Amino acid sequence: MTTHGPVLPIWSCGGCDLPWPCPTRRRELRAEYADAPVSLALYLGAYLVQAAEDMPWAPAGALHRRFIGWTRQPPEVQQRSTATVPTERGRHEPHRAG
Prior knowledge:
- With about 100 residues, the chain is mainly alpha-helical.
- Helix content is about 40%, strand content about 5%.
- Strand 1 and strand 2 form a beta hairpin.
- It starts with 5 loop residues before the first strand and ends in a 19-residue tail after the last helix.
């Protein structure tokens, strides 16, 4: 059993006091639902609805990213979430004969 459960109604983590789901709980959930990503999204969607009721002042987009948005990203992208991903060279430039 994890110590990183939500503390309601403020939705902070009981284990580390970060916004829930914290990075530790996200890793745990990713491992628990490794073969069932849709089930993970449904599970977190139920928490999203509950959190939206508890925190009506929170922007819907921020809650979505916090509870569900991270589930579709590979774990390595989450760890470098502030980094930019380079585009393919020349992908958006017209081809030049050289």
